[in-house]
Amino acid sequence: MSAQCLGLSPSFGFGDRTGLATPGHIAAVNASSSGILPIFAQQSIREMARTGRTATQVMEDAFRAVRNAHYEGPVGADADHLKTEADVEVTAEAGFVFFTIDPSAEVDQKADNYSFDELKYRFHDVRELSPWVETYLGRTISLSTGSTIEMTEPVLYRAAVKYGRAIQLAIRLGQYIQQVQDRAGRPCEIELSVDETDQPTTTAEHFIIAQQLLNAGIRLVSLAPRFIGEFEKGVDFKGDISTFERSLADHAAIAKVVGPYKLSLHSGSDKLTVYRQLAAYTGGMFHVKTAGTSYLEALRVVATVAPGEFRGMIDFARERYLTDKATYHVSATLEAVPPPHEVSSDDQLRQLYLQDWSSVLPGQGFTAPGRQILHCTFGSTLQHPHWGAVLMQILREHPAVYADILKTHFMMHLAALKAGL
Ligand SMILES: O=C(O)[C@@H](O)[C@H](O)[C@H](O)C(=O)CO
To answer: Catalytic activity, per the record (predicted)?
Structure first.
């Protein structure tokens, strides 16, 4: 079986940083009967670098499990957060068919704070590569939600300064992806991701980005805006849910009228509080990406079968956290979570650093800040000569335990999404 394009069907990405999680992911999909299609091979270039795995290994690990489970449904494969043509080439060659373009390196992350005078000054540097400003100027776009988008000079100058270069890069990478896949006679789906920026993507910016890519012939299957609210790694949504819902409804309306394409939720691990709304407001045209949560559930296997080793892994993670958290959006502090030597109970320690479903209200996700300490240090742990070897040996010695833990974990995730369909 090879990877397939999943189109506009509701879909869910099961990122796996160990290569041993797919059996549990398959068990959850089979048990949930949610109708949500899976992507079992999903890794970013960043994750592959941090875990020392190649694109080919990611594909082989996932599809070996698919064959062993005799799983027969359509299965996607997401080459995530691609930033260069070289990223495209190595993942296309490995058999990926879903390509997530990430032009965030070209996003001016300070643009939301510039005054109008500053924007007018900086606009001169991007005027030539943002010819679309004149075409939108003065237009009012009405959305099915009743919201309107006023394309004023300040709005357009800010969009051009903030995303002008990023749009150009996204078009270049998108056209390259389509050329590479068309030449090889392989299918492809493209997602644009600007979720990893500090400032939310406004409706005007979403409308412009999507329309410029589509005008350039980039066939988007999904788009990941930076939603309002805090989508921190490893824990549930943080923020005002009604504000998020209003913004989500507008973004979904844009995706329908400019596309259609799916809205994609990155850092989707454990964000159960917003899953029902995402499914409902998009009318099922959504994609959710997870990855860190499967790694945290791998540590739950260690906590279950070898609590002493789990304590050692926590101590190591605490040593690495301040360094490793640099590229991730998290707020946990070492001071907020006691170190293992201060917690005698293994169960309490597991609650502090992983949390149990028994402690979570229905339709909500985990919130324990210790999860972020373990989440961000996955690369250091997996690549550590001792702790990486201990973790992988425990997972290989207890495959049924890991599969059962993942089945329970992702049945909760898929059920929360299904509630909105
Ligand atoms: O950590 C990564 O690089 C990926 O998991 C990336 O964050 C992915 O796009 C994601 O959001 C999964 O939750």
So the answer is: keto-D-tagaturonate = keto-D-fructuronate
